[in-house]
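Many introductory courses stop at the sequence. We go one step further.
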Amino acid sequence: MILLRRLLGDVLRRQRQRQGRTLREVSSSARVSLGYLSEVERGQKEASSELLSAICDALDVRMSELMREVSDELSLAELAQSAAASEPVTAPVRPMLNSVSMASVTAGPERVTIKAPAEAVNVVAA
């Protein structure tokens, strides 16, 4: 099962790490407890739209950009889930994924790697 909160947390963590910022810095700027932000990043807590807005402001990232990246991750996770279940993928998940073929999908016991045009993306089954 694909959990949206895990994908969202992964994207938030990557955004923060790209900026070289700590959980403490972002939690302080967003006025969210460090523990709660950590739980959101680990996909253990569902973030409200208000909380997401505060975190995005603290990271100086548009919420639409964040959600677009989450959407892309979700598309890849759905593709990986279909591949792992040996279901044929009848249509491209998103236009950017047109060049991803079933031949480029490899499955392990709990990890599926999809080689996308720009980079390989690891998706861990929940």
